[in-house]
Amino acid sequence: MDLQLAGRRLLITGASSGIGLATARLLAEEGARLALCARDEDRLRTATADLGARTDVVTASCDVTSRASVDAFVATAVDRLGGLDGVVCNAGRSLMRSLDETTDEEIRDEFDLKIFGALHVIRATRTALAASDRGAVVIVNAILSRQPETRLAVTSAARAGLLNLSSSLAEELAADGTRVNSVLLGLIDTGQWQRRFAESGADDFAAWSAEIADDRGIALGRFGSADELAFPIATLLSPRNSYTTGATLEVGGGVHRYV
Ligand code: NDP
Fold first, then answer.
1. Which CATH number covers residue 13?
2. Are residues 209 and 157 in the same domain?
3. pLDDT digits (tens, 9 = 90+) for 164-218
4. Count of domains forming the chain
5. Domain limits at 49?
6. Residues 145 and 211 in one domain
7. Cα angle vertex 61, ends 113, 233, to 5°?
8. 124 contacts 84 by C-beta, under 8 angstroms
9. Could you tell me if 117 and 205 lie in one domain?
10. What spacing in Å lies between the alpha carbon of 126 and ligand 1's midpoint?
11. Which of 9, 34, 160, 184 has the maximal Cβ count within 10 Å?
């Protein structure tokens, strides 16, 4: 099946690692032209160095919590790619702490990252996406947005806000012909979890993560991989998926306790 992504001009935030990087790789294989950002530009360039041989790739340092930084990145992307057809709001991380352990400033930072990290990008790209024949936004969010967890209290609240925002944006941007959909993740083996594994003192990632998967009630009994997220994201970006908007796609390995 041809997803008709060849030549599409797509922007991904948080593309130096994990889900963003895996998505960039898949889209490059499909022949899409890419604008990629992360805060650490050296790490981004190193991680994506091989993609330039396949397709046009624009890389830039950008902090999605800064409107000015996002505006500058988007302006460069639109200029270099000649417009935009799709955006993946992916940059971020989770704050794993109970409310008791979290300062007010950390709470504000978390809301800033989750809400403005997507909103700045959508505002900055709106005109370019409206000019596309089939503009699409994919917001990378988490199942936590519907099922909060105690040690992820602030992240869960911010994610719920982002999910509601996505539904509102899907209605508002429909007037431009732009679709807005969310992918809700379960537990995915990326930089975030590798950092937690390193801090845990455990020595076998497979056993450590299988125990967490079991504890969380993941039917498939394991974490997902970043590659397993790249395909659902690509299908939501595809112009062939032209009647899907305001939707949420759960990719969580069958987390049955959320049913
Ligand atoms: P990684 O840590 O592997 O990658 C995160 C990426 O985001 C990096 O490229 C990082 O680069 C970038 N980034 C972080 N903060 C910013 C910022 N302020 N501005 C621009 N770029 C930023 O994480 P994942 O691939 O796991 O995470 C991708 C998304 O999925 C995140 O939003 C995460 O919260 C979400 N998610 C992940 C889950 C999981 O289990 N892995 C579960 C639920 C949601 P740099 O640090 O250089 O900026």
1. 3.40.50.720
2. no
3. 999 999 999 999 999 999 999 999 999 888 999 999 999 999 999 999 999 988 9
4. 2
5. 9-186+225-245
6. no
7. 60
8. no
9. no
10. 22
11. 34
Q: Is residue 149 located within the same domain as residue 87?
A: yes
Residue 131 and residue 82 in contact, taking contact as beta carbons nearer than 8 Å: no
Can you read off the two tokens belonging to residue 98? 């109970």
Q: Determine if ligand 1 sits within 6 Å of the CB of residue 65.
A: yes
* In a shared domain, residues 237 and 211: no
Residue nearest to atom 11 of ligand 1 (CA): 38
Quote the crossing angle between the two packed helices 191-200 and 205-215, to the nearest 10°: 100
From the CB of 156, is ligand 1 less than 6 Å away? Answer: no
Q: Is residue 38 part of a domain?
A: yes
Q: Are residues 106 and 205 in the same domain?
A: no
Q: Is residue 79 part of a domain?
A: yes
Interval 57-77: pLDDT, tens: 999 999 999 999 999 999 999
Q: Tell me the CA distances in angstroms from 88 to 19, 61, 68, 97, 211, one per residue in order.
A: 10, 16, 19, 27, 31
Residue nearest to atom 21 of ligand 1 (CA): 38
DSSP letter assigned to residue 90 = -
Distance from the alpha carbon of residue 83 to the mean position of ligand 1, in angstroms: 25
Any ligand 1 atom below 6 A from CB of 28: no
Structure tokens at 108: 């504000």
Angle between helices 67-81 and 117-131 (to 10 degrees): 30
Point out the ligand 1 atom lying closest to the alpha carbon of residue 40.
47
Residue 161 and residue 48 share a domain: yes
Residue 2 per-residue DSSP state: -
pTM of the predicted model, to two decimals? 0.97
